[in-house]
Design a protein that fits this description.
CATH topology of one domain: 434 Repressor (Amino-terminal Domain)
Number of strands: 5
Helix content: 25-40%
Strand content: 15-25%
CATH architecture of one domain: Orthogonal Bundle
Low-confidence stretches: 133-148
Largest sheet: 5 strands, mixed
Oligomer: single chain
Length: 165
């Protein structure tokens, strides 16, 4: 993103950029760290710019990590996966035969997520193409449960994402 100029003010010079490590907290997830994110900040107005690369692929990688972990999903993880599939909570509940308030309580952490719900959302993510959405097939192991609490992901030179070593 060389030559990027601030769109908020009249700073005439291209912004200086660098590659950074940053937490990624989309959808309430708080245990992902991204390495290699483009970052620039306007010296005049302070506007910040981030370049995450291929977001669809990044979200696919996060979804794979979540559905392959050994423990049951947490509410924020369930919410991320429902949104990843392109569904609202109500539509998802109707689709799998649950009451919408049951899914809402699970997302908010007011009701534990059952093993069966964990399996159902996992299979839906694995078979995403059957829901007329792009099928992202990646093979990952239960990285963060075996290694550490925070998952470190690194952007490749092509803008895709992979588990950091």
């Amino acid at each position: 993103m060389k030559g990027l100029k601030c769109v908020q003010c009249d700073w005439a010079k291209p912004l200086k950029s660098k590659s950074i490590q940053t937490p990624y907290s989309v959808g309430g997830l708080d245990h992902f760290i991204l390495n290699g994110v483009f970052y620039a900040k306007c010296p005049q107005c302070g506007e910040e710019y981030f370049g995450y690369g291929n977001l669809e692929q990044l979200h696919g990688l996060i979804a794979e990590i979540l559905i392959n972990k050994e423990s049951l999903l947490k509410g924020n993880e369930l919410n991320f996966l429902i949104k990843y599939l392109g569904f609202s909570g109500k539509f998802f509940a109707d689709l799998i035969g649950y009451r919408p308030e049951t899914i809402s309580r699970a997302i908010r952490g007011k009701k534990p997520i059952s093993k069966i719900l964990n399996v159902v959302i996992g299979e839906m993510v694995r078979n995403r193409a059957k829901f007329k959405l792009p099928n992202l097939e990646y093979n990952f192991h239960d990285y963060w449960l075996k290694q550490k609490k925070k998952v470190s992901l690194k952007k490749t030179s092509r803008g895709n994402w992979k588990l950091a070593a």
